[in-house]
UniProtKB/TrEMBL annotation:
Keywords: Oxidoreductase. Transmembrane segments: none annotated. Belongs to the Glu/Leu/Phe/Val dehydrogenases family. PANTHER family: NADP-SPECIFIC GLUTAMATE DEHYDROGENASE 1-RELATED. Residues 136-382 form the Glutamate/phenylalanine/leucine/valine/L-tryptophan dehydrogenase C-terminal domain. Gene3D superfamilies: Leucine Dehydrogenase, chain A, domain 1 (3.40.50.10860), NAD(P)-binding Rossmann-like Domain (3.40.50.720). The keyword Iron does not apply. Its EC number is 1.4.1.4. This is glutamate dehydrogenase (NADP(+)). Pfam families: ELFV_dehydrog, ELFV_dehydrog_N.
Length: 384
């Protein structure tokens, strides 16, 4: 498979051996070609773990929506789509852009509107559309919920339950917020959340009321320090990371390479037993090696956060058939998807001699299962 890997590393736009391109758009000052390539590579493998026929792609710009006026954001989205529309659509190599950092329902809406104006087509290819103007009930909760469902599967095999477990979470975007929400629903005790300025610690744990306050703070682009005005026992740590906080489970949900070697050592000293990636590759290779040596079970993002794109792939069927699932249906399907991804990873690891109790079983299993799925399709199609 070496020649297949070499081919896979140089993208078409990225890889559609398994199906139409599907991935997110990111608007953030850090965006460059290198980041887009690694995100698209990871997205290709992640999508292959789902039971759907989906390829992988990623796109974006170093445009920063923060601090921009509504008109500036509208104009940028329209200009961006004036080129993107040439490369997407149901009758050519289809692409289905979703939201990522800096791209939410507002930006997707502007992109969709410009695509409709340019093509005179009402095509359900853009993710996170408003329910009021599209048949699909795309769930922004899906990725965050899926991360917790995946953690639940891992813990069940360790004869443990989320209830009462102390959890540290990084990030304050939609993934982190919905991880918090589902952790609270399962009776876990999430105690941290973070942003680019620092992290917030509430030793008593967040509940639904506190979560509502956090969301209000983020909607108004305020510092998490605002939280301490309502809950003075909580502490805001400027320029810090949450990884030294005592915990059972850690959920890095912010961005790539956020959890490094020193952070992993801090987690070991904090008593952490399980790390589940919510973001795309938030743990460095050095950090993962620390987890392996310390026998901390590690769930990689390509498996743990694959639920969102899988649900949105399923909901492409809704758009085609002009039907809409309710929240309960989506939750059930999402749990089934995460269980299937978990079992698929375990089987692939076992097939290659990596035993179930090994701390690296999930990362190797996910890598093997996803790569073989893509590589086999490429070989069959002569894409080498």
């Amino acid at each position: 498979f070496v020649h297949v890997l070499e081919r896979l590393l140089e993208p078409e736009r990225f890889n559609q051996a398994l199906g139409p391109y599907k991935g997110g758009l990111r608007f953030h000052p850090s965006v460059n070609l290198s980041i887009m390539k690694f995100l698209a590579f990871e997205q290709t493998l992640k999508n292959s773990l789902s039971s759907l026929n989906l390829g992988g792609a990623k796109g974006g710009s170093d445009f920063d929506p923060k601090g921009k006026s509504e008109n500036e954001i509208v104009r940028f989205c329209q200009s961006f789509m004036e080129e993107l529309y040439r490369h997407i659509g149901p009758n050519q190599a289809p692409d289905t852009p979703l939201g990522d950092i800096g791209v939410g329902p507002r930006e997707i809406g502007y992109l969709f509107g410009q695509h409709r104006r340019l093509t005179s087509q009402y095509e359900g290819m853009l993710g996170i559309k408003g329910v009021q103007w599209g048949p699909s009930n795309l769930r922004p909760e899906a990725t965050g919920y899926g991360v917790v469902f995946y953690a639940k599967e891992v813990l069940a095999d360790l004869y443990k339950d989320l209830k009462g477990l102390r959890c540290v979470v990084s990030g304050a975007g939609k993934v982190a917020m919905y991880v918090l929400e589902k952790l609270i629903a399962f009776g876990a005790v999430p105690v941290t959340i973070s942003d680019s300025r620092g992290y917030l610690l509430d030793d008593e744990g967040f509940d639904y009321g506190k979560l509502a306050l956090l969301r209000d703070i983020k909607v108004h682009n305020k510092s998490l320090r605002e939280y301490t005005k309502s809950y003075p026992r909580a502490k805001y740590n400027h320029d810090g990371k949450p990884w030294s906080v005592k915990c059972d489970v850690a959920f890095p949900c912010a961005t790539q390479n956020e959890l490094k070697h020193a952070d992993a050592m801090a987690l070991v000293n904090a008593g952490c037993q399980l790390v589940i990636e919510g973001a795309n590759m938030p743990c460095t290779v050095e950090a993962i090696e620390v987890f392996r040596k310390s026998k901390i079970v590690f769930g990689p993002g390509k498996a743990a956060n694959a639920g969102g794109v899988a649900i949105q792939g399923l909901e492409m069927l809704q758009s085609t058939n002009h039907v809409q699932w309710n929240s309960e249906d989506v939750d059930i399907k999402l749990q089934e998807i995460m269980k299937d991804i978990y079992q698929k990873s375990l089987k692939a690891a076992n097939d290659f001699g990596i035993v179930k109790g090994s701390p690296e079983v999930l990362v190797h299993g996910a890598n093997i299962a996803s790569f073989l799925q893509v590589a086999q399709a490429m070989l069959e199609q002569g894409c080498v």
